[in-house]
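Entry 14. Structure prediction run on the chain below.
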Amino acid sequence: MAAGTKTVLITGASGDIGRALVRRLDELGGWRVLAAVRSLDAGEELARGSTAVVPVKLDICDDASVAAARDDVAGRLDGRGLDALVNNAGVSADGPLELVSIEALRRQFDVNVIGQVAVTQAFLPELRRARGRVINMGGAAGRLTVPMYGGLSASKAALDSLTNALRMELKYQGVRVSYVEPGALGTDFFQRSAEVARRDGQTGSPESQRIYEKAIEASAKAIAGSRTSPVDAAVGAIVKALSARRPAARYIVGLDARLGLMFLPRFPAGVRDRVLMANLKLGRKTFDA
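Output returned:
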C-alpha cells in the first residue's frame, strides 16, 4: 500500500449508497476501500478494474462472519490500523406496525442497530490504532417518526442514540464519530423494502389486513412520487466526514431533511401528525375500520 494511503471499511457496499461511495473514493485516490458484502460475487464486481477496491465478505448479523472479517481486515492492515469504518448497511420493514411480523421487525433491528454495534465493536481496536473515524448512516425518519414505516423510524432512532453515546465514549480515545442523516434519496431502497414486505407477508387477521389496504397503497404511491435528493449528496457528506480535519457530529442531507428536522419537531404533536400523514396521503378515508 502506498505511503499516505488510508484504509476504509464500508458495510453494505453493494447497495446504492455503498456502490456510489466505493466509486467516489476510488476516483479520489488516496484510499484503499474494503468493500464489505455478503456475496463475494458482488464484491468482485465492485472491485473490477480497480486496484484500490478489495472485497471483504461480511454478514453484519452473523457473529462468526463479523469475527472472520475482523481477522481478514487485520491481516491486510500491516499493523497500521483502520482509518475509517462506514456503517452503511440497512433495511426497512415496511407497513403498519399491526401487520409487520415480529420476525421482520427483529431483522430490522438486527441489521440497523445490533449489527452496526457488532461491527463497530469488532473493529474499534484497529480504529484506535489509526486514530480513525466511525461514520454511521442514519436517516431523518429516526427523528421524525413516519407512519407506515414505524420499524424503520424506531431502528434509526436507536442508531442515532447509540451514535451519540459512541461519540462521547470515544472522544478521548482519538476516534471521531459522525452521523449522516439523509432525507429521501433517489435510490431503490423503498422499492426493495416493499418487495421484502410482500415476500414476508403480513401478520394479523384478514380483517386487520383489510383495514390497512388503502393506507398501504396510498403511502406507497406518496413515497414513490416524493421529491428526492441525489445519492451523490449523501456520498458527499460521507466523504466530508471521512476527510474533514474536524468532522461534524452530524451531517443532514437533503432539503426535505433540513426543513423537516428544523421545523416539524417544534410543532405540537397533533399538528406534526397531520403534516406527516398528509404527506403520505393518509386520511380518514384511507382506513376502513
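The longest strand covers residues 31-37.
Filed with the rest of this week's runs.
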